[in-house]
Write a structure and sequence with these properties.
Length: 201
Amino acid sequence: MNTANRIYLYNRYERFWHWSQALLVISMLITGFEVHGSFTLFGFEQAVNLHTLSAWTLLTLWAFTIFWQFTTGEWRQYIPTLKKVDAMVRYYAFGIFRHAPNPFQKTADKKHNPLQRLAYLALLSMLSPIIWGSGLLYLFYASWASLGVDGYLSLEAVALVHTAGAFLMLVFFIAHVYLTTTGHTPTAHIKTMITGWEEAD
């Protein structure tokens, strides 16, 4: 395709942290559900170790990515907006099945449509605190007494909240993967996240 019909959306670091984050989230889902007792793959102890390693690695990756977002100004891509939200809802609910044109066109300055921005806001403001808060409490259970929280929390309740957060993350992950198939071809968005280049519809 002519380069005039392509735009460079995602640079190397964006693609690196996207795929690294995806692998780490998948690792935590698999090992987390094994720790929960849903199946046996690595064995309980190794699953716990892999789950903990993946969590610390992801937190480290997020620290670098937050620094990168603010030093490059890319954090502006995530500012929520309600403009065209109704059009995007109609598109995903009906229009996409009738081959209607996408009401949102990506640019290097606007990579996420209004629904994506709201989804990322929900992920960062609600789901992440649930998962990371309960996860860190679970990890540092032995320190509850010294922190003075042992009389206010129960391990069972923390585990339940963490598991509920994991199921919500799984739903988000499945929806995210499904939406990658909604480009002008089923693999167009995935190709963009590999190469960085988006082909114009």
